[in-house]
Specification:
This protein is α/β, with parallel strands linked by helices and 481 residues long. 36% of the residues lie in helices and 17% in strands. The strands form 4 sheets. It has a 5-stranded parallel sheet, with helices on both faces. Strands 6-13-7-8-9 form a 5-stranded parallel sheet. The chain has 19 helices and 15 strands. It has 3 domains: 132 residues, Alpha-helical ferredoxin (Fumarate Reductase Iron-sulfur Protein, Chain B, domain 2), CATH 1.10.1060; 170 residues, FAD/NAD(P)-binding domain; 157 residues, FAD/NAD(P)-binding domain. The structure holds flavin-adenine dinucleotide and iron/sulfur cluster (2 copies).
Length: 481
Amino acid sequence: MAASDMLKFTKIAQDYPVKRDAEERDDDFLEISRPYITDKAEEQSSRCSQCGVPFCQVHCPLHNNIPDWLRLTAEGRLEEAYEMAASTSTMPEICGRICPQDRLCEGNCVIETSGHGAVTIGAVEKYITDNAWENGWVKPIGILRDRSHRSVGIIGSGPAGLTAAELLRRKGYKVTVYDRHDRGGGLLTYGIPGFKLEKYVVGRRLKRLEEAGIVFKYEFEVGTDATMEQLRAEHDAILIATGVYKARALQAPGVGTGGIVKALDYLIASNRKGFGDDVPGFDDGTFNAAGKRVVVIGGGDTAMDCVRTAVRQGAKSVKCLYRRDRANMPGSASEVKNAEDEGVEFVWLTAPSAFEDRDGSVSAVRGTRMKLGQPGPDGRRQPEPGGEDFRETADLVIMALGFSPEDLPQMFGTPELGTTRWGTLRTDHKTMMTSLDGVFAAGDIVRGASLVVWAIRDGRDVAKTMHSYLMAKDAAEKVAA
Ligand code: FAD
Ligand code: SF4
Ligand code: SF4
């Protein structure tokens, strides 16, 4: 079909949406990329070679029908392109913004591997769905049939919980989502900063879910406001989608000194400030980088979000200390480039070992320079002490060393809830059910810290297995009756 509209990758060069200049963007929390204009989106989509075996699709965790929606976009059939994008994803415009495309769809596009530069899949996906919102093509959630005699309780309103909530509501179940925060969205709302994902984008998704009759109970912490057993008595099935929140700590002299903060506490304060909330920890300076020499420790996406937030808060200087080098860091290469453009300095191959203080407040980070040894199990070269010492002055140190799961069996009062040796929840690979009957789990709490797109995929998969479980329950009751 219309192959002549496609295959233009030899004639048309790859062209990502224009980014706002660093000087223009480094003091606001608005997204940094400008949207595609229609001609550009059509033109860029037409570069796709419509592969028989589309590796982009294979490597997209949602297996989105990428070649099809690219062709529809190139042909100007944008509403159909949106319908196709929405058929496999509950939030295509969010993935288009924050998926690490260079490691997923675009990194595996055949024209990238042939040296022509990948089709700009993420930017087109964002363009299609943003347009759908603007044009009213994003319809209310349709309820397929009434199954309100069954109710589902979902703990956690991150992308895994929200995806499952949408799909189960569509099946007709009564759905209640519990979250300990005062707003929904999980890390989409309180972790990821606005310059990657503006908050109205998450807000309109939440509104659509509320309008479909999904009940959100905020500031409700399971484990404190109800036990798991109480929830199980109230619902026919439960989904645990609580993410991973225990900050990994560094054991080093001076670690408890004032001015050393955890990454997520820092990002939550900044995001709350963006909502206009009263944030005492920001107002008293604890989580405010303005005028400070900031050192962020870590090399993942969370560290990148912290350094770029500190720039926007008006830090005097921002340095990122990481124990490996650029090639071996877990954070996305494009985020490092964005941070560097905004004035962040990366100090590679450095491992902190102590914190100095002046009058109870941190004044410097001391440590050892590293060198790289053999690759570890994850393929990245392992850091080893290189001998030399270093010292970086600092007024604010942000620890971004990753996250592990909280102790859910203890927190929920259910010691029989099975976990792995990493503390993530143990689930049956097929049913995604935990060791408790009717209690399922999805997202980071099962995978460990991962990606939004994988949380959506898990939410989609678990909605299916929960539906099967509830139908089997209905069938068993019918037989018994
Ligand atoms: P979460 O999004 O963590 O949501 C879990 C929810 O459960 C939270 O709202 C929490 O309040 C709630 N909860 C927890 N315990 C309880 C309880 N006991 N009772 C009630 N509610 C509870 N991924 C990307 O793909 N791209 C990115 O650019 C990216 N950037 C990131 C930046 C940061 C700073 C961080 C921390 C992560 C980032 N990620 C990114 C990872 C991504 O955000 C997560 O993989 C994803 O959000 C996991 O989704 P989830 O639904 O499993 O959990
Ligand atoms: Fe690419 Fe992510 Fe969209 Fe899949 S969901 S097509 S990986 S941007
Ligand atoms: Fe198009 Fe690239 Fe996907 Fe092939 S791999 S279908 S060229 S986007």
